[in-house]
Write a structure and sequence with these properties.
The chain is of the alpha/beta class and 270 residues long. The protein has nine helices and seven strands.
């Protein structure tokens, strides 16, 4: 059989997301995975829709200025406030994104909250908040994006789960956090299976110990104890997680769907 794979790609281009419209949830903090992903995607030619519960004009200016300083030009971004716990909010921001850019091509959901506490200390309100943001919120924004993806018969979803979902907690976050992130894995696999015939891919990333505000609650001793158990002997950088998002969002991963990708420095080799 003749090898034609080189001809199937019209060209090789270092801009992996040139003119792709990518929705990124959770990018208001410059220390966040969402921000690092936005910066890297912009560097690769993407047009961006940045969603966050706390998004406002001041944060938008800060994020846009930071990205511009890194990539050397003003990024093509719209900034929208969104509470992903609310289905109407999710539908409205996706509609605004389509109205502005004409379509959306990719959704990367980096939003999430964490709280470390023993199971017997978790209140009904605490449980509901974690599940509503991490799992219900992921469901809501995926559903809103899928309405567009099914119409165009194409699209990519990248969801962030956690190592806690794979090993039953043990690092940061209580049992409600681990359960919510376990649900994100199952949800993503379900989306991948249901929507693959429509040329829609969905994959999930399980990070561990990334340099974000989620580590702020750990003492130096606690952090060092965790690092001692990581084969690479360090925590991960947000740009390293963003690189995985870039791979999964781009055509380089065109035959990957329903996958769970570990970004954990080797702490959970399984």
């Amino acid at each position: 059989m003749k090898n034609t794979h080189l001809n199937e790609n019209k060209k090789y281009n270092h801009l992996l997301l040139e003119n792709k419209v990518c929705v990124i949830v959770g990018g208001a903090s410059l220390r966040s995975i969402g921000y690092a992903t936005a910066e890297l995607f912009a560097a690769h030619g993407a047009k961006l829709v940045l969603l966050d519960l706390v998004m406002n004009a001041e944060i938008a200016n800060e994020v846009g200025t930071a990205i511009a300083s890194q990539i050397g030009h003003k990024p093509d971004i719209i900034y929208l406030q969104c509470d992903i716990r609310n289905t109407s909010d999710c539908d409205k921001v996706i509609e605004k994104a389509v109205a502005h850019f004409g379509t959306i091509d990719c959704l990367v959901n980096c939003a999430g909250i964490v709280k470390s506490e023993g199971m017997l200390s978790i209140t009904d309100e605490g449980y509901d908040l974690i599940m509503d943001v991490n799992l219900k919120g992921t469901f809501n924004i995926c559903k809103s994006a899928l309405k567009i993806f099914t119409e165009k018969q194409a699209g990519v979803i990248v969801n962030l789960s956690s190592l806690s979902a794979q090993r039953g907690g043990g690092l940061v976050g209580g049992s409600h956090y681990a359960a919510s992130k376990g649900g994100v894995i199952s949800l993503t696999r379900s989306i991948a299976r249901e929507f693959a015939p429509m040329n829609i891919r969905a994959n999930v990333i399980c990070p561990a110990m990334i340099e974000t505000s989620m580590l702020d609650g750990l003492s130096e001793k606690q952090l060092n104890d965790v690092i001692s158990g990581i084969p690479l002997k360090r925590v991960g950088k947000t740009i390293e997680l963003a690189g995985t998002c870039l791979f999964l969002a781009s055509d380089l991963s065109g035959f990957i769907t329903g996958a769970t990708i570990d970004v954990n420095g080797g702490i959970h080799i399984h």
